[in-house]
Task: inverse folding
């Protein structure tokens, strides 16, 4: 699959990098980092990296044919722009392309609490078929530490866009 991972400037930007690390090697990986996310990130993952200002990059076009795009995490700023159809950088443009081409777009909004504006933006996008999947923990798979919690969230995101993984212990009746 051709997978686009975008990281915008919310807390937990390193989660997006971890997701990229855990994405199986057979997938073609593209990474877009917003200017604000870049402030937090100091290491380079193995992927084709696009600067957010590079609005001319391949992922900005419907003909690129990305199978899925994951914005993990997504700031309220980027969420609002996408919900309004603003495409002023590569992340928002690529997201708008995924919506117009009816392809898989997963957004992981990170804020606490969510404002009514953010909730309306999420509802609007959800109704358009965008997967809204904030970084939320479950307690049934017995995570012991931050690493396992992150693997759980990333595993759930992979499940949602159709990427096989064994990143977390799935719920089973036998363990209830
Ligand atoms: C340390 C730090 C943490 C932040 N955490 C969040 C956050 O969790 N959620 C959010 O929506 N914005 C957060 N922000 C604010 C965004 O970075 C800011 O709104 C920025 O304009 C987002 O730009 P982008 O959407 O282009 O990445 C944070 C900013 C800083 C400096």
Result:
């Amino acid at each position: 699959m051709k997978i686009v991972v975008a990281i915008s400037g919310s807390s937990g930007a390193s989660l997006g990098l971890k997701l990229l690390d855990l994405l199986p090697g057979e997938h073609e990986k593209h990474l877009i980092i917003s200017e604000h996310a870049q402030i937090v990130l100091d290491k380079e993952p193995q992927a084709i990296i696009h600067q957010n200002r590079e609005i001319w990059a391949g992922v900005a076009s419907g003909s690129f044919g990305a199978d899925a795009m994951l914005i993990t995490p997504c700031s309220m700023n980027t969420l609002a722009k996408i919900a309004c159809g603003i495409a002023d950088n590569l992340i928002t443009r690529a997201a708008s392309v995924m919506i117009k081409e009816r392809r898989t777009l997963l957004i992981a909004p990170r804020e606490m609490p969510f404002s009514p504006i953010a909730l309306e933006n999420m509802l609007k996008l959800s109704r358009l078929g965008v997967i809204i999947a904030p970084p939320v923990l479950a307690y049934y798979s017995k995570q012991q530490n931050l690493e396992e919690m992150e693997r759980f969230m990333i595993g759930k995101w992979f499940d949602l866009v159709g990427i096989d993984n064994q990143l977390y212990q799935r719920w089973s009746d036998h363990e209830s």
Summary: The chain has one domain: 2-136.
